[in-house]
Amino acid sequence: MQINFDNERPIFIQIAEWIEDAILAGAFPEETQIPSITEFSVNYKINPATALKGINILVEEGIVYKKRGIGMFVAAGAVKKLKEKRKEQFYDNFIRKLVDEAKRLEISKDEVINLLERGYDHEYRN
């Protein structure tokens, strides 16, 4: 994990997103332990409160949970929740903007679909 201190995104958000990415990639399967707040703070030389804030976001979303005296664990169903969350973000961040721009350029729905298919085909050929 790389924390980008020059990034405009807060460090605690970067931590939460890194854990999410690791869960989706299978690095932390459901019901397995994630690094502790102390590990994050020592390894990345950040304030423990910052690491805690990032992990607490995931606790509030039901992605991770605390086992008292043991540590933080990936919740059952976390992958499904994360995929649903990321699909919504994908829609909000990309699809809505794509449709708005297509309408401004008077690109039809069928043309957009063809462009998407072309993008998929091109990507898989490389």
Automatic annotation (TrEMBL):
This is HTH gntR-type domain-containing protein. It comes from the Bacteria. Keywords: DNA-binding, Transcription, Transcription regulation. CDD domains: WHTH_GntR. One of its GO terms (molecular function) is DNA-binding transcription factor activity. Pfam families: GntR. PROSITE patterns: HTH_GNTR. Residues 9-77 form the HTH gntR-type domain. PANTHER family: GNTR-FAMILY TRANSCRIPTIONAL REGULATOR, HTH-TYPE TRANSCRIPTIONAL REPRESSOR YTRA.
